[in-house]
Design goal:
Elements: E1 2-4, E2 10-13, H1 22-32, E3 36-40, H2 50-60, E4 64-68, H3 83-97, E5 101-104, H4 112-116, H5 118-129, E6 132-136, E7 141-143, E8 146-148, E9 165-168, H6 169-174, H7 179-186, E10 190-195, H8 216-225, E11 231-234, H9 244-262, E12 267-269
Parallel strand pairs: 2-3, 2-11, 3-4, 4-5, 5-6, 6-9, 9-10, 10-11
Antiparallel strand pairs: 1-12, 7-8
Length: 270
């Protein structure tokens, strides 16, 4: 009988190396032993270039597991202004790199036409390209005691009819939700996880897991018990780290946390 490795892949988002480059994220992922990377498409030209990314994959021996579409507020100008065009290019990039998942944020409320057809359009794009389009849970924006409506059809994707979802633990904290409860509510639609933490601040913190108040360990253990078939990607904010050594220490701690709580008994085959 042979043991089958049932380990959930743990990747590193290229956002974790900011303000260093996309290239730096590949180097860090390789050195620390991550299973791959998630490429955040942003203003770094390397993040937009399939050929350049393939060279990084070959050089560092680290595959691209997923692509994060440029649907953030700060990437509104990346790959033009057509939101569907951005998703098309993201799916093409993922397919070229052998990544099965694209992470997508819901539309902003001012993107009215895009938002009106978003749920159906995401399903159609997924069916046509064969790439999993995993819509991410977001959070309400708050300013001066007021809650601002920023996303349409909504920041909580739980009941909106998407086929595949991304669960971000920091976003859960900012929205006042519980990551373990969301893991159970998302059920089989949960395709992708952004591993981080939050303490419930109005700011999206992206702390090292275990440094906030979310039940991150329990949520990961729930994934392991249920035989989660998706990918877990570290998305930790290291902008304030005092240099590369401190940045890598935080990301090494994140990987260790993931490995510990995702561990499950290997399957045995005859």
């Amino acid at each position: 009988m042979a043991a089958v490795d049932a380990r959930t892949p743990v990747g590193l988002s290229t956002s974790c190396s900011y303000p260093e480059s996309t290239t730096a994220a590949f180097e860090i992922a390789s050195r620390l032993g991550y299973d791959g990377v998630e490429v955040l498409v942003w203003t770094d030209p390397v993040s937009q270039d399939a050929a350049a990314l393939r060279r990084l994959v070959d050089h560092f021996g680290v595959p691209v597991l997923s692509v994060h579409a440029p649907t953030l507020l700060l990437t509104q100008g990346t790959w033009g202004r057509d939101p569907w065009g951005k998703l098309e290019k993201s799916a093409e990039l993922a397919a070229e790199l052998g990544a099965g998942t694209v992470v997508v944020h819901p539309p902003f409320r001012w993107q009215r036409d895009y938002a009106a057809g978003f749920v159906a359009g995401i399903g159609e794009l997924e069916a046509r390209t064969g790439v999993t389009m995993a819509v991410e849970n977001m959070f309400p924006w708050r300013a001066r005691g007021r809650e601002l409506v920023m996303y349409a059809p909504g920041w909580d994707p739980t009941d909106l009819g998407y086929r595949h979802l991304t669960l971000d633990y920091s976003h859960a904290a900012t929205s006042g939700q519980d990551s373990l409860e969301l893991t159970r509510a998302f059920g089989d639609r949960l395709a992708h996880v952004h591993l981080c933490d939050g303490a419930g601040s109005a700011k999206d913190e992206h702390l090292v897991p275990g440094d906030g108040s979310q039940p991150v360990a329990a949520a990961l253990q729930e994934l392991a018990r249920n035989g989660f078939g998706g990918t877990v990607v570290a998305e930790v904010n290291t902008r304030r780290a005092k240099g590369r050594v401190a940045r890598e220490a935080a990301l090494a701690r994140t990987l260790e946390f993931a490995r510990e709580h995702l561990a499950r008994t290997p399957e045995v085959t005859a």
